């Protein structure tokens, strides 16, 4: 399911070797989709963009985006160790 775009879209062109998708057992379309998702995940992980914006970039809905983060070893929320200990003490 694709999300509705609430902002003007721009395009990024990235040059890559034409043999690259084949070398990772992928089609060009699959490789490009994965590259876009990886960029969205990384920007979300760096706290540069929200999960909603990242999902829009990736061409998916927010819930699906969040459920995909584990494939990239990225938590969908950051919790500090001290915060968890405090929560456990106050539970």
Task: List its salient traits.
91 residues; mainly alpha; 5 helices
Write a brief caption for the model.
This protein is mainly α.
Question: What percentage of amino acids are in beta strands?
Answer: under 5%
How many individual domains? 1
Give the count of helical stretches. 5
Uncertain segments are none
**How much is the radius of gyration in Å?**
17 Å
Outline type: elongated
Number of strands: 0
pLDDT averaged over residues: 87
Q: Approximately how much helix is present in the residues? A: 40-55%
N-to-C SSE string, H for helix and E for strand: HHHHH
Q: Structural class given helices, strands, pairing?
A: mainly alpha
Instruction: State the separation between the terminal residues, measured CA to CA.
Output: 38 Å
Oligomer: single chain
Largest sheet: none
Describe the 3D structure.
This protein has 91 residues and is mainly alpha-helical. The protein has one domain. The protein contains 5 helices and no strands. α2 (28-45) packs antiparallel against α3 and α3 packs across α4 (62-68). The protein starts with 19 loop residues before the first helix and ends with a helix.
């Amino acid at each position: 399911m694709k999300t509705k775009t609430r902002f003007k879209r721009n395009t990024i062109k990235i040059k890559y070797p034409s043999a690259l998708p084949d070398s990772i057992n992928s089609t060009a379309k699959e490789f490009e989709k994965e590259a876009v998702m990886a960029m969205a995940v990384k920007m979300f992980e760096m706290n540069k963009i929200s999960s909603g914006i990242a999902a829009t970039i990736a061409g998916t809905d927010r819930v699906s985006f969040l459920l995909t983060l584990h494939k990239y070893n990225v938590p969908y929320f950051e919790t500090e160790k001290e915060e968890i200990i405090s929560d456990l003490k106050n539970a």
